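Protocol step 4 of 6.
Sequence for DegT/DnrJ/EryC1/StrS family aminotransferase (Chryseobacterium indicum) entered exactly as in the expression construct, tag removed. Do not edit the line below.
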Amino acid sequence: MGGSELKYIKEAFDTNWISQFGNNIDHFENILEEYLGENSFVAALSSGTAAIHLALRLLNVEEGDFVICQSFTFVASVNPVLYLKAVPILVDSEPSTFNLCPNALEDAVKFCLQKGKKPKAIIAVSLYGMPFMVDEILEISRKYDIPLIEDSAEALGSKYNNQACGTFGDLSIISFNGNKIITTSGGGILISKSQITKNRTIYLATQAKENEDFYSHSELGYNYRISNISAGIGRGQMEVLEERIRARRENHVFYKELFESFDDLHLFSEPSAKFYSNYWLNVILIDGEYWDKKKMRSIFYENSIETRYLWKPMHLQVLYKDCIFFGSNISGAFFDRGLCLPSGSNITENCKERITRALYDYRN
Ligand SMILES: *Cc1c(COP(=O)(O)O)cnc(C)c1O
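Step 5 output, structure tokens:
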């Protein structure tokens, strides 16, 4: 935690606004709207998954509709498509950002059109904090007039062309789950381009209760609003966001220097000056004969250093095995060859020395 979170929680307790209304929610949304920049309308929700679910509802996704999704992601990006009994069409990644491949995306769009059914949405993800190829993906979204949902759950603070992630989609989402760069303990936001859409989001998130003096409902809603307590945590966390981004980007510089002397270990970095990543996680791809991912993981583990596998792409998951997939399994190769390295905002110099030592011990 950053320090001020308890103050805002106490405010909520002192004023007895501990539920889904209150000052913290209003402030948290305003702070984020200011942070994200012009024309961003933020609705605070109980999770990032809820935000994706509502984004699909706002786009009128219904049973049997096609929704195109990046395959290489955390399962929460795609599950809401199944909540609505729609059909996910999975698309591979390209190697420069790890994210949605524009060529495979266009193939998927053409396939859907040939089937006589225009996809209702494209879900593109900024995985590990790295923006996807925004210009190229937006071009396809506009060319075929298919709305873009930007899943920037992991990318608060990242930018593309100096514009904040969370502002590129027709609808965008950010998560404040415990594992993200900042957290509300659990929470998320849906970012839209109008006050009307924001209001409709909040309405759907509060059981679609209509403005009457009795309980009046003509649409299906959800219990997806954030609590005033969680929003208080979020207010406090926003005060330390810049500091967290700085620390994560410093971790990346450390890894960059470390891996310069290892030709067959490729650290995943910003492909050009257009991209600015919060480097939520640092990821390496392991090439060649010498390095073995499992062995490397166990050596780190013996030194009490945790590494993790990359997200396993959806087209390789049992849950999504019957989905149509476009691409050449580039993301599958990432999964086979990749490792996530310790990347928290609180990594000390001592930790960095231990990581360096473990790596050199393994090579020698
Ligand atoms: C965390 C995450 C989500 C879901 O967010 P929650 O707040 O945990 O529901 C969605 N997509 C991606 C890529 C994520 O990492």
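Step 6, annotate. The first helix runs from residue 5 to 15.
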